[in-house]
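dumping this here before i forget
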Amino acid sequence: MSTQVLLLRHAQALQAHSGQADIDRGLSPSGLTQCERLQQHFLQHTDLAPQVVLCSTAKRTRETLLHALPQWLSRCRFETSIYAATPATLLRWLLRYQHQRLLLVGHNPGLEQLLTLLLVHPPAAPMRPASLCHLRLQRAEPGGALQISSWTF
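structure:
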């Protein structure tokens, strides 16, 4: 059995204004441009359409989803625990939806730390804003541990 996980870091965010909470930062103009590129990527790769979308409640992740992937809003579950999540928290979400194609829209450092945990040879480059990592997971035997069969970044 095989499943797919798409990890998407939110698009470029604005710098925080004085007194503004980090969770309330929206997308910058370059972040909106990144969303257009993401939308084109997913339109060209319809086989990546997720069955479930999990998204942080931060404004920049919600705006990334709204501007890049509005067609999947109905599949989305907004989760507070994804904001500032540890790799262990993100891994629990992946395992919870392991039988479905999942898109998780989140943040660094959690996403990069998760990749470091999962991959024998994680990407050398940082996971920049609007970066997408596509993981294919499979079980060697029924009931066995999930293993990464391939990934692209």
